[in-house]
Amino acid sequence: MVGREVLWYAAGNDKFDERITSVISQARSHRERFGGVVPSSVSDVSVPLGEMMLFKRGDEAESLRQACHLTADGHIEAMRFTQPGMWEYQVQAALEYYWRLGGSRRNGYGSIVASGANACILHYEENADQIGEDDLVLIDAAAEVDGYSSDVTRTLPANGSFTGPQRTVYEVVLAAERKGVEMSAPGSTMRDIHDEATRILTEGMVDLGLLPLSVEESLAMHHYNEFYMHSTGHWLGLDVHDRGSYRVDGQPRPLEPGMSYTVEPGLYVAPDKAEIELTLLEYDLDEWSQRRIRLGSTAAAAREAEEKENAETITHQIPKEFLGIGVRIEDDIYITAGGHENMTSSVPTEIDDVEAMCAEESLLPRK
Question: CA 346 → CA 235, 263, 354, distances in Å?
């Protein structure tokens, strides 16, 4: 859109940035010869659009709510449907068939049905393995309604019962998820939620013997990244990772009514993590992020690698009973004036409730 002085354009794409610059240059030459209007400035349209997309009210909120409710119903059916011996893609098909019947024309993103150690792969989308008798199945999948996407993850036991180690890891993740949902209210921030969830997860890692140092040391040195390597949530709406700034004037943005986002802590103990090497280096993630902007990613990465290389390291053996266990629990939150609405709370998260749902008869035929 071109005004008399400002060209609004979603900057940040190298190919199109060059094209826009070229067009402006040509227009300037044309103006000098023949007159006309050439924008005197270029403004990034993604900034005001991001602000508009960040708040959902009225019909927008209702469409998002419908997407979440339909997604939740599909996850409930997946708990009933899943059995050992099935293929991951069959569970995916059951979910997506249920959503199509419910009126969703498409998914919000590529469905993840990850059994066993596949759950330790964050963006696993092959969905090609057979589900084992004692596997956990991590399902991260969602329906879209009117262009608005949900984003839900549940982790369930294929045979209907958690093993002891699975239960222990699951309870740590559930405690972090519960706390993140509880903290969701106006005035809180997503950074607050992430920090508190990370602390709870780290306490669990130390208690389980996944990390050898104290909780405070493990947090300061970010050793939890060995088993928890993503943030606790993101904006949700027209895109599953919706637009909108997470900081204002350099500070974490306070939550306001109309905002929607996910709460999704997890723990992933990959089968090849029998032994880990930990660097004994305390650092501030924000400072390192700022340095990447100042120096560029390549130079900053080289500086980080140098600092880590000069630090002491220790090795740590991981309790073998936890190897191959991956758990994530994710709900969709809408901030209200008085607190929040958990739009996907109908899908069980408590262990007893999950096991009870897995024991129910599926509404869909398995053959």
Answer: 21, 15, 11
Query: 144 with 71: CB under 8 angstroms?
Result: no
Structure tokens at 291: 């340095």
Task: Tell me phi and psi for residue 149, to 5 degrees.
Answer: -110, 140
Based on its alpha-carbon atoms, the radius of gyration of the chain, rounded to whole angstroms, reads: 23
Tokens of 126: 């092959």
Q: What are phi and psi of 193, to 5 degrees?
A: -65, -45
What is the Cα–Cα distance from 272 to 270, expressed in whole angstroms? 5
* Superfamily of structural domain 49-274+318-358: Creatinase/methionine aminopeptidase superfamily (3.90.230.10)
* Average pLDDT in the chain: 93
Q: Is the pLDDT of residue 344 over 50?
A: yes
Q: What is the helix (H) or strand (E) element at residue 104, kind and residue range? A: none
The answer to whether the CB of 76 falls within 8 A of the CB of 346 is yes
The reported pLDDT for the residue numbered 33 is: 64
For every residue of 139-200, DSSP letters joined together read: EEE-EEETTEE--EEEEEETTS---HHHHHHHHHHHHHHHHHHHT-STT-BHHHHHHHHHHH
313: left (phi over 0), alpha (psi -120 to 50) or beta: beta
147 by Cβ neighbours in 10 Å (0-12 / 13-18 / 19+) ranks as middle
The sign of the dihedral angle between the CA atoms of 347, 351, 356, 361 is positive
| Strand-pair category, 266-269 with 325-328 | antiparallel
Q: Which range has the worst mean pLDDT, 33-42, 240-249, 283-292?
A: 33-42
d(CA 146, CA 205): 41
Under the banding of pLDDT at 50, 70 and 90, the label for residue 18 is confident
Report field, pTM of the whole predicted structure over 0.85: yes
Give per-residue pLDDT as tens, 116-158.
999 999 999 999 999 999 999 999 999 999 999 999 999 999 9
User: Is it the case that residue 49 has pLDDT exceeding 90?
Assistant: no
Q: Domain-by-domain residue ranges, the chain?
A: 6-44, 49-274+318-358
